[in-house]
Amino acid sequence: MGAIRLSTGYAKLPAAHTACACLLAAAFVMVSALALAQEAAQAPGAKAEQSPGFLATATRWLGEQVEFINSGFKDARRGVENFSREAGLAAKTTADGAKDAADAVARIPNARVVTGHEKCRLASNGAPDCVAAANDVCKTRGFSSGKSVDMTTAEICPPKAYMQGRSNDAPCVTETFVSRALCQ
Hints:
By secondary structure, this protein is α+β, with helices and mostly antiparallel strands. It contains 4 helices and 5 strands. It is 53% helix and 18% strand.
């Protein structure tokens, strides 16, 4: 029997690969040359600047609107945070005031207003200091402390000044007395 020989065409394949590679290389060189020519044409100073297209303008406008809305939301958030902080401070101040008022009301049943006549000492600046006098009035009535409610002021002059008709150079002094005190 004779040998059958099949021809598959493998001998023609390397030539086809070479031709295809040369064609791709030529296409790559042409595309590169076109890109370089386009870049040279768009170089600064080579051509006047083109106005942006509709899409670029619309995109820029939308971006500005989003920025504007975001800044409005940020300002509103800051306003709400500031209001919240101020409301918290007001509530705390009100609560402290209510607590102080409740403490004062709770002490009222134990508090009494008493009358007396206690001379106020003079402070180092020459003004009357009636705190100690109010405490003394309350302590004589059995309370632990007190605050002055009513004071009396009198000008005390020596009898000789009254006999001479009270001239301006008479040695008179002003004295202050606690006449009523709130005792606790």
